[in-house]
Every structure is written in structure tokens, then in C-alpha cells.
Design a protein that fits this description.
The structure holds two protein chains of two kinds.
Chain A lengths: L2 E7 L8 E7 L8 H14 L22 E2 L2 E2 L21 E5 L8 E3 L2 E2 L2 H8 L22 H11 L6 H5 L6 H12 L8 H14 L10 H5 L7 H16 L3
Parallel strand pairs in A: 1-5
Antiparallel strand pairs in A: 1-2, 3-4, 3-5, 6-7
Helix pairs in contact in A: 2-6, 3-5, 5-6, 5-8, 6-8
Chain B lengths: L11 H26 L6 H17 L1 H30 L16 H4 L1 H25 L12 H8 L3 H28 L8 H29 L1 H4 L1
Classes of the chains: A alpha+beta, B mainly alpha.
Amino acid sequence: MDLTLKIWRQAGPEAKGEMKTYPISGVEEDMSFLEMLDYLNEQLIDQGIEPVVFDHDCREGICGMCSLFINGEAHGPGRKITTCQLHMREFKSGDTIYIEPFRAKAFPIIKDLMVDRSAFDRIQRAGGFISVNTSGNTIDANAIPVPKENADKAFDAATCIGCGACVATCKNSSAMLFASAKISQFSLLPQGQPEAKERVLNMVNQMDLEGFGNCTNTGACEVECPKGISLENIARMNRDYLFASLSSNK
Amino acid sequence: MASTSKGLFGSSLARKYWMAATGLFLCTFLVGHLLGNFQLFLTGEEGQLAFNEYGKFMTTFPVVKILSYLTYASVLLHTVDGIMLARQNRAARPVGYVKENQAANASWASRKMALLGLLTLFFIVIHMRSFWYEMHFGTVGLDANGNKDLWTITVTAFEQWWYTAFYVVALAGLALHLSHGASSAFQSLGVNHPKYTPLINKTMTAFAWLIPAGFIAVAVFLFVVQPGQAL
């Protein structure tokens, strides 16, 4: 198929960027979207043009590295998929495809379509863990009873791959879906209880410090999330933060 | 872990709690206001005297006074908080997308809350100038019982087609604002449960359309019947 690609090119973090047009032919419908970009880059290299920089790693939908805002949607059209799971059969010959980086103040552009998502790592470091005593008498996690329903919900929250599609798609560049998933995966389990209050207070505080926007409850994040993380997690974070604020000694 | 929190003031979540709490309080205000307005379906001198008696009660009864101050405070807080949230949200994405398909994943009203809120605020200013200001500071005639004749001011205002038209448009904007906000407030406060949320969402969506429809019905009734001409 023949396509017209409109791609954001930006030489570096401070450089001025712009949309550039690249006609491409010979794209096969079985190519993944990233393979199509590989194919474009091979042609650009042959022509002596600098290839387009974009994030990718596992290419099987589990690492969260591939990003891209394709035709106005995070990870392009299609639901519960990452960009590496998007295939060119979703497009037809003659289409114009807009490819832009994830846009947020907290996700600065490194080059072209590659953005720095380490703000997510800093939110995780602020409390997205449990402290386990490793002195030799550690209790087997399976020895603590967990209701099946809670275990399932915690697991669902833990499937968040931290790709940032929620931030990219939110009109406010809000990171609430990500933060709430990372808080919920512990707050639903007994092992997460000793640090539950500090966790939600610290992670929300870090999220605010990173410059993400607020939540308008549009629900766009849930629709575009490749892992289908539920808005229920945001509500859980909201009430956990409310109770923690009211009852914390700090 | 040492806790670092702004608590119930200043954090992103706290701002949303205040939006939700003031928004829901203002929803209860709308119910009271609408019940009062339904008296305007009563025409003639009987309606005039009853409505003015009600107007006197609403401006003098101490409990209502306290509620009215709470309402002013809620409107102010909801507005200031909303503007601060909108400014932060704008700053969170300094460079926008060239192509953005927002309709693919969110309703129009949910994406335009600030715009619909400002339209509602503009309406409130005009509305309060027309009636609240006249009642408190204007020169208002008296009815047969010696009460301030707010009824005549009200019915004559809605005899003008452009005033009624503006009112209908503003209330439609409010309906859209509520169509997202009224149920969204529960989510902001952390109320989301598989058993109750479907019921809450249905109830609040019905509320969002029926309450403004009630206000519009009264306004259109006054425009069509023109009860001020009959006296």
C-alpha cells in the first residue's frame, strides 16, 4: 500500500520541531506499525536522510516502551493494544497518517518521537513498593490469606506497563490512571497496608511535582489504555488519599 | 517512608474534592430554586401574592440566609478552583497535537467543562442582576399585601423573547455541564462501586437534564402566557 506519513521531527530537546511529510510505498498490511517505521528508516538512510527516532523494545505489547500518537490517538486506532501490536491492515492505501510524540510537559521530547518518561519512575520511587524484611525469617507471601476478588483486582492494576498512553490521551496530561494503578496494586493487598497512607500521599505529591495535569474524569485514559486499567483505580486513589489526608499524623 | 503531603488543600486531588463538594451542594440548591420557580405556573393576582410572599420568606428567614451565604461561597470556590485547575491543565501540555481525535474516547461535555462553567457563571451574573440585585438594592413596587413585587419583575423579564432565549441557551449549557459534572463528582470523591455506580450515574444523568428542563419549562410558560399582561 502507498501512504503519506506526516511525522514530527525535532533534532533535540530544545530544538524547534515541525511536521515533515514522507511518502512511502510498498508497505505490506502484515507489517506492524513499528516495522513500517523501520521500513521507512531504511529508505531514509539509503537517501542520506537522518532516520526517525522512536521508542520501542519488546515488540510484543508487554514492555510499555513504544509510544506514538497516531492519527490523533495514543497507540493509534484500535483498543487495548500498544503501537507494536497495531498492524498496517488497519489502514488503507492512500491514507495520510499523522505520527506525533506523546505530548506532556512532564514527558519532554528527547528527539523526534522519543520522549522522556522518567517522571513515572520518580512517582514509583516515591512509594510504589513494599518494604520487606530480608533478615532470614521472611514470611511466605502465600501464607497470608487474600480474598480472590482483591487478588484479581490487584493483579489487574499491576498489569499497567507504564507506557504513558493515559497521559498522552488525557486533555489535561494527567497521570492519575498510572499513579492509581501503581497505588492500587498494593493498597488491595495485606502486604501493602503498613505503608498505605504514606504511599498514596507521597505518590500523589510526586505526581503533582512532575507537572502532570488534573483529572476531569473524561474517561479517555481508560479507553486508550493498552491494558484496560479501570477508572475504579482512580476512585480508589481518590478515597485512599482523602482518608489518608484526614487521618495521617503528618 | 516519610510522608510529604499538601493534604486537603493545594494538591491535585484536594482541588477535585472541593470542586465535587461545592458542585454537589449547588445541585441541591438547584432543586430548591426550581421548586420555588414552579409557583410561577400560578398566574393572576393569586400567583403574584403567593410568589412575593415566598420572595419575602427567602430573603428574611435565617436558615435560608445561611444557606444563601453557603451558596455564594460555593459558587465562588467552584469558580476560583475551576479556573486554577484549568490553568494547571493547560500548563501540563505546553505544545499540543497537530491532529487530535478527542471524540474517539471522551464525551464533548466532559472535555468542555471549563467553557460550560464560564457560560454558566456569565448567566449567573446576568440572572442575579435581573432579580437578586433588584430585590435587594433596586426600587421595587409593593403588591396588595405590602410585599416587594418580585413577581412583576420576573414575569415582565420573560415577556421579552431575547431574555427567554438567552435563558434557554444558558440552561442548556448548564444541563451539559451537569451531564458530566453531577456524576463525575462522585468519582472525584472516590465513590465508585460496581453495585452503586450504575445507579448513581443514571440518577445524576436524569438530574442533569430534568432540572434544567424544569427551569426552561417555567421560562417558556411565562413567555407564552405573558401573565404580566393580564393584570
